[in-house]
Amino acid sequence: MARSNYITISLKLQELSVLNVRDIGEKIEIEVIRKWDYTVCPFCGRTTSRIHQRSTPLRRVEDLPIQGRKAILIVRKRRFICSACGKVFTELLDSIKPRARRTTRYEQYLYKRGTNVAFKEMSFREGIAYTTYRRLWYRVAKREIENHERPSVRKMGIDEFSRAKGHMYDTVVTDLERHRVVEVLKGRGKEPLKGYLENQEIKPSVFVVDMHKPYASAIEEACPDADIVIDRFHVIRKVNEALDRIRKTLQRAYKKRGGGKRFVYRIRWLLLKGRERLSEDEKERLDYVLNRAPLLSRAYDLKEMFRDLYRVCENYKDGRGCIECWCDMCDTVNVSPFKDVSRMVREWIHPISLYFEHRVTNGYTEGVNNKIKVDKRMAYGYRNFENQRIRILTKCG
After folding, report:
1. Is residue 4 a part of any domain in this protein?
2. Which of 95, 109, 146, 171 is the 20 to 30 A CA-CA neighbour of 101?
3. pLDDT digits over 176-194, tens only?
4. Does 246 share its domain with 348?
């Protein structure tokens, strides 16, 4: 009896009493029964204590390990008859769902352990078939997602990620204030995002996106009063790409001429890196290159000027005015790649300038994209969109 009491305390299942304990090698079998001689009728909700049948087929249910050994609960259930409605039913347990082969807490344990570990490794550790563990994890994950509270989002980040690079792209939607993923949409077109936004009771007031026109179009139609902010990372990346195109052009030109024009090689990261983060030796080497390549020097100055706009400008009016001046300089300077960037910036100048009003970026969403890539590599890719959606919402939601 003392040992049964010890096992009862160890189980920490308040509704069960231990009847018998058996040691069988690598596992422990624990025979249990529900403590109380009364239950609630699932048909009418009344309480009844009339037992209709005391002996029913025993159920074997796996529970959390005890001292490194598997714990098997042998559950003895009774059948009751309701005094009010006369229906006969089997008593229900909170800790064990009907027809389940594992306790609810053991399923939760397996679910949490498998969130950041490959299914194959977890199935090997726990001694469960891979397909069984995979099915269990997705079942519990769906239940957790459905029960998860979803507060309204005020500042929303939207970005695309690749399910199969170059073939299939999907959309991830994030809450930039609470730093969590709120939804994953199939495809990166206008209609999925528009449909999702139209179903929201409380519309976000600020959206942060890249220069993908279907996203902007969907937001304008579904949330016409919201502000669309173009993420500064994507704008600066376009400027950096223009500078890099000029570097490549110079390299090809010097290569055709021959001679000792090797100074333009191996300088890509010096050009793209912010000048304030360069060491003294790096600055000296970069200045040497720029002094000998006037075209590259003008392009580099334009790049640094654009980066400075994000640090100096304090409001929408100043930001828009400085951006317009920068575009005029690009048109004046005879640097073809920067003229292309200037046209793009003029096209998106209003949402780009809104950054100076809201001071919000899509940095968290870009970080989620990196987590998605890691999870995709761990899973060796996903063929099923719904499975990937559940994994993303579980890890980042």
Report:
1. no
2. 146
3. 999 999 999 999 999 999 9
4. yes
